[in-house]
Design a protein that fits this description.
Elements (H helix, E strand, L loop, with lengths): L1 H25 L7 H14 L6 E8 L4 E8 L5 E4 H6 L3 H10 L3 E6 L2 H11 L1 H17 L1 H12 L2 E9 L2 E8 L6 H18 L3
Antiparallel strand pairs: 1-2, 1-6, 2-3, 4-5, 5-6
Helix pairs in contact: 1-2, 1-8, 5-6, 6-7
């Protein structure tokens, strides 16, 4: 009985946060408002005690040939990249495969200088310039970002999950040796479903 009570309380908390995200999505006027939705997602996950360092919405516009992102957490800048640049970077082909197939992609990545150099070389100068400049600017503006980047050198394992919807993915990451749990991924899926339903208006 006690377990049922705890489960019921947890579900009530989740439903409350889903409603908050639903409200944020309803307030969207254009895809430029992705960051405000990401901010609400970040706040809701914190309320549910799900640790994420960064969370973002990545929206593919195949007609325009671009991928737009809106982020929250440590890194909040909105970025627009050409799809060709995104597809050519080291994770691009696998990301697109999972997105097209509608499958969740959860992994733990080792991020080091050699891997970044390979990513930059494959993607070309445009990709490297965008990401190096945005992380540099973020680190200069916020000591927490600089501290997080320093931690990545000491603790290079990054748990990342992409949850797909028709127009892109909801992506979350955190410095960790273990992947996101099944329960955490299920909750992220519920948030993604809410966003996907609202995004159809745009």
């Amino acid at each position: 009985a006690n377990e049922q009570l705890v489960a019921g309380q947890r579900e009530t908390e989740i439903e409350r946060e889903l409603e908050r995200v639903r409200t944020a999505v309803a307030a969207m006027e254009t895809s430029e408002d992705l960051a405000s939705v990401a901010n609400q997602l970040d706040e809701s996950l914190q309320s549910l005690h799900i640790q994420v360092d960064n969370i973002g919405l990545q929206v593919v516009d195949e007609e325009a040939g671009v991928l737009r992102t809106g982020g929250a957490g440590l890194f909040t800048a909105a970025v627009e990249l050409s799809l060709d640049a995104w597809k050519s970077q080291i994770d691009g082909p696998e990301w697109f495969t999972h997105w097209k197939e509608g499958t969740i992609w959860s992994r733990v990545e080792k991020h080091d200088a050699e891997r970044w150099a390979e990513k930059s070389e494959r993607a070309g100068e445009g990709f490297a310039e965008v990401f190096v400049s945005m992380w540099t600017a973020a680190a200069e503006a916020d000591p927490k970002v600089a501290e997080w980047l320093e931690r990545r050198v000491i603790e290079p394992s990054l748990a990342t999950v992409d949850v797909p919807f028709a127009h892109g993915t909801l992506a979350a990451n955190r410095i960790a040796d273990e992947p996101f749990s099944e329960d955490e991924v299920n909750i992220l899926q519920r948030f993604t479903d809410i966003f996907a339903l609202g995004y159809r208006r745009h």
